[in-house]
């Protein structure tokens, strides 16, 4: 190792070397100090690797390293000689076990004197882990994972020298703290304001920073956020640009919504819709931008089959469970949680009943109720239709599919079902078999029974179900059956969906 640079007492305090070295060499002759360095954050490191390999606007400030030179009493004396020579503008070579330091004759430049120093190690001696990393560990570690083209890039370094190991252990922690926490960083909103105001980089954002920055800037420039009075609290904190950027980053990663020129107008319409969703609700008082962007996501990712039902359910879920009070939740987590809940809603209904022609009118009544519920906006499965075009629930003999294994077919569809309607009339074995399989799922079911078939219900309804609530119908009064069944289904659906979850 051989690096040349300038050495001076920085701010009259620490003896500091400033110079340049290859990234690969820096990675080799330095190591993180576990006493204060955090573990590597994988995503951050991957971002830095991409930053290196992309090559555009590649720049960063100095990597800060630390080193204590003396390792015994003899080297402490040698250090004192080195410091004396350095302060007196002397020159010479000073050898330590870790490295050699050579001071050239200082050269005056105006009112200043530059002291050029060379730090080197002997060829036969390893230069691994000579210095500790005080600041820049992620950048150095990222460079280690890149190819030789990146490792050969020259980077600026600072090496702070300490007189003893104990001085290093106490003072390096303070330097780490001061470097990382003393300054007041530019907020993301302030940073984005600088970028979004610069019209010269409008068209280059897509290439240099990514399309998410480009479209976030386009959205910001084309949206008059002051027009959406019911959303005013969300943007009061002056986080408009940040909110739009985080949303664009998410949909780019999610890939269900396309980032293209059409999204600007679509976002405008969605803002108007969400503004009305917030009106006269607790949401209007809230400042939670993550919940707002979740609404924006569901508005843009329109459910083609069920229209706006999903976003309405999302609103009810947010309000009922006071999700708006949740702090620090990520957009990805919020959408992931609700999507799982949304998937668990009742969609597929399995009907277990006798297959006799005597029950055709009962089946038709069930189909009528099911089709009416879909027309009323309930999100039931539309997988099957009868010859009249009506949507119908699943019954093992109705899809007209040839199955070589009827038992497997029954088990598969029971496993997929979210609710069962079971007609216990005549105590048919197939009905009790299917109901028995379904009961283990701990999901709702509705029992039907023809009260005109048996004088004593106990003969046709097994004892374990006899006390359970059921709809006792008269096949000669199907209107009453439909009304009761529809009411029961609506109550279950409202309880599990509309009220919700």
Your description of this structure?
By secondary structure, the chain is α/β, with parallel strands linked by helices. The chain has three domains: 2-183, no CATH class; 192-343, no CATH class; 349-498, Rossmann fold (3-Layer(aba) Sandwich). 45% of the residues lie in helices and 16% in strands. It contains 20 helices and 17 strands. The strands form four sheets. The protein has a nine-stranded mixed beta sheet with strand order 3-10-4-11-2-1-9-6-5, with helices on both faces. The protein has a four-stranded parallel beta sheet with strand order 12-15-16-17, sandwiched between helices. Strands 7-8 form a two-stranded antiparallel sheet. Helix 2 (42-54) crosses helix 4 (137-144), helix 9 crosses helix 10 (240-254) and helix 9 (211-222) packs across helix 11. It starts with a strand and ends with a helix.
Overall, the morphology is elongated
Strand adjacency order, main sheet: 3-10-4-11-2-1-9-6-5
Q: Using the CA coordinates, give the radius of gyration.
A: 36 Å
Tally of structural domains: 3
Q: Determine the strand fraction and express it as a percent band.
A: 15-25%
Stretches where pLDDT falls below 50 for ≥5 residues?
none
- The number of helical runs is 20
Calculate the mean pLDDT score and round it.
Answer: 86
